[in-house]
Amino acid sequence: MAKSPDEMTQPEIKIWRAQVLKSLDETTRKCDETLKKTKESKKILDESLSQSENLSEKWKSYENRFNHAMKNLVLQIGKQMVLTPLEPIKEEPAYEPEKMSPLDASKLLKHKRNIIILTGAGLSAASGIPTFRGNDGLWTKKYKYCDSAEDFATLRNFKEHPEALWEWMHYRLELCKQAEPNEGHKTILQFQEYCKLNGVKCHLITQNIDGLHTRLARQSEVLAVEETKQGDPSHGFTDCVFEIHGNLNYSRCFAECSKDLKEVQTPKSELSSEEQIPKCEECESIMRPHVLWFDECYTQELHRVDEVRSILDSEIDALIIVGTALQTSLASNIVSHCLMKNILTIDINVEPACHFGSVVEVCGKSEETLPILFSPFISKKSSKSS
Ligand SMILES: [Zn+2]
């Protein structure tokens, strides 16, 4: 037990005093340190306080300016509504289909000068390429990682499973490479040639990504499609065919080091699905198929959407719809636009695609009906075309 100072000897008292003094020194030093830290904290607090005052001033000023701008905007809108009253909403014209034979329908095309042909998967069915939404269409198949094709063929899924999407694309590309254009494709090309030789504007817009229209067009001496090679900015695009959903035969850099289109090569079968993903020669990123996924938007650069819109703004006098259920937005917009303007619309389908407006329905397979529909024009085309 420690002694009290009264019980201590003189030398013990000296040692005890020295210890007490040392302990006091230590306490004083710690107090000084705490004081210094408190001062520093106070300085930081002062700074924060002044900043928060500034912030609340800035917020108040922003709030005032925002309220002012909103009041002006509402006033402007109000003025404009008075100056230009809202147009009454146009009602969709009632559905008035008129069933016709292809030969009768062809008579309606006689003096037309600015025609759109809009094609879909039904046209290529006779070439052995499965449609998407039919009974045994591609979209009814089971896909890796997804319940539906609308989930599968998406940019989001490509980011997660590029090997699965490429496996599917390579399979479909092989189908398309083995397929030959059918009588439907051939007579459309002959009609395009007739139009070019006779000063009629004919815009072929396709939702198909099989490349069969362009393959044929490139063989036509009349259409004289410009030859391009890999590396040319327009490589993969054909002036006389609008491939609004892309073309399976091409791919582009997923990292977008450039937007140039490269031909897709058949991968070696011994490679794993990861190894079969094509790589960009410039930046070594993976390549992506040049097709529009379900969760992507149309662009001018890749899908020529501005050109399609400007065609719609021109004086179109006939629209021919071939083999499509019009389930994609741009295609259905084209048709709605023409029906609202009462432009002659001929629907060539096994099942009619239109459900409003006055439509000429030609029921049947396109490879059988198109040769009849275009026969009066094909026989008149110049003898120099093949
Ligand atoms: Zn690249």
From TrEMBL:
GO terms for cellular component: nucleus. It holds the Pfam family SIR2. SUPFAM superfamilies: DHS-like NAD/FAD-binding domain (SSF52467). One of its GO terms (molecular function) is NAD+ binding. Signal peptide: none annotated. It comes from the Eukaryota. InterPro entries: DHS-like_NAD/FAD-binding_dom, NAD-dep_sirtuin_deacylases, Sirtuin, Sirtuin_cat_small_dom_sf, Ssirtuin_cat_dom. Residues 95-381 form the Deacetylase sirtuin-type domain. Keywords: NAD, Transferase. PANTHER family: NAD-DEPENDENT PROTEIN DEACYLASE SIRTUIN-5, MITOCHONDRIAL-RELATED. This is Deacetylase sirtuin-type domain-containing protein. It comes from Euplotes crassus.
